[in-house]
Amino acid sequence: MLIFLARRAGYMILTMLAVSILLFLLLEVNGEAVAVKVLGPYTTDEQRNLWLEANGYFRPVFVRYLEWLGNMLTGDFGESIRFRVPVAEVLVPRLINTAILGGVTFAVMIPLALIMGILAGMREGSKLDRSLSVTAIITTSIPEFASAVLLTFLFVFWLSWLPGTSGMTDGFRPIELVLPVTVLVLYGFGYIARMTRASMAEVMQTPYIRTAILKGMPYRQVIMRHALRNALIAPFTVIMLQINWLLSGVIVVEFFFAYKGFGALLLEASLNQDIFLIQACAMVAVFVAVTTQTVADIGYTWLNPRIRFA
């Protein structure tokens, strides 16, 4: 296991290095383009050259990359063009906001999807199974922007039960999380539930489960000790992938409800060509992606000890 963890850590570092090199080549090599984005399109060549010289853009590319990477590792991402403050001061609060939104979404979506998927898989072909399949297909077929519009019409304009935005202008208010969390749960619930249902149904048909039941082992014990652990391997992969989706794929939901999270920040950075903020967001997203993949690999060995990684 220690060798496996060391190798996974090495893969994470190599992946991050590869992404950092690609990101630097795409956004930082052309110093003239960076100067235009920072100073504006109407500055003179002399002004741009002075800025490039002051910021070290006339030095060799390799030296610039090492300095850029060192600054990244210490949390110095530069100054945001859009907000005119250090990128970290904008990025950290937005990450925390998205972590809150994602945490609440996971706390609702994961238990609900797993419980419903397991129950449907245990009773393959039952009314519960068919009802879950239909519900899951409907919810995953409706994109977030469509369900956001529908729920806003119902609960904001018609029933007047919930606020229409989640800007938290008056401080943190849990009620403002209800609509964005509901939209995210509706979209992600069905995929996890169907994956859990399919995995559970497959496990229930395996010979060792049938043998345990025929030998008279209590049904609850068969499910909890033998079937459930193997059935969770496939859903566990999907759940870990949902973290990446929640981090960078909630742009529509955060923008629609004016929620100041990481997704909305990434959209703002792209629209305003905030090069330093885009770099920071990209590196954070890749770091989360490789970390969750490593956690998923480790989780495999816990759920099924027969799985080993060379």
TrEMBL record:
Bilayer topology term: Multi-pass membrane protein
Domain ABC transmembrane type-1: 95-296
Transmembrane region(s): 99-120, 132-157, 177-194, 232-257, 277-303
A Pfam family: BPD_transp_1
GO annotation (BP), single: transmembrane transport
InterPro entries noted in UniProt: MetI-like, MetI-like_sf
Cell inner membrane in keyword set: no
Alphabetical UniProt keywords: Cell membrane, Membrane, Transmembrane, Transmembrane helix, Transport
PROSITE patterns membership: ABC_TM1 (PS50928)
GO cellular component, one term: plasma membrane
Compartment list: Cell membrane
Family: Belongs to the binding-protein-dependent transport system permease family.
PANTHER family reported for this sequence: DIPEPTIDE TRANSPORT SYSTEM PERMEASE PROTEIN DPPB-RELATED (PTHR43163:SF6)
Protein name: Peptide/nickel transport system permease protein
Species: Saliniramus fredricksonii
